[in-house]
Recover the amino acids of this structure.
């Protein structure tokens, strides 16, 4: 988040103190909320693939977990321009 502010400042964008505070608040809260939403969807999906001793379900659970982390990070970082790391932490909760 701090990198984004400095990078934009070097490219000529002006920030006031209020703009910086709003950016941090939106990035921190928005990242965690996005992570929680996508994590809840992934958890619901993981619960459907939970038959004991079925190899296919184990493979599906691993694929869902890996895809969830990449999807959360990529969506937050590149589409919404908020913190992908915080979004991944939110999805892990």
């Amino acid at each position: 988040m701090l990198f984004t502010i400095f990078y934009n400042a070097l490219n000529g964008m002006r920030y006031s103190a209020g703009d910086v505070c709003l950016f941090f608040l939106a990035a921190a809260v928005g990242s965690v909320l996005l992570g929680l939403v996508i994590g809840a969807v992934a958890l619901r999906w993981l619960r459907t693939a939970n038959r004991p001793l079925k190899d296919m379900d184990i493979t599906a659970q691993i694929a869902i977990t890996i895809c969830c982390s990449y999807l959360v990070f990529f969506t937050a970082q590149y589409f919404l321009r908020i913190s992908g790391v915080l979004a991944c932490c939110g999805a892990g909760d």
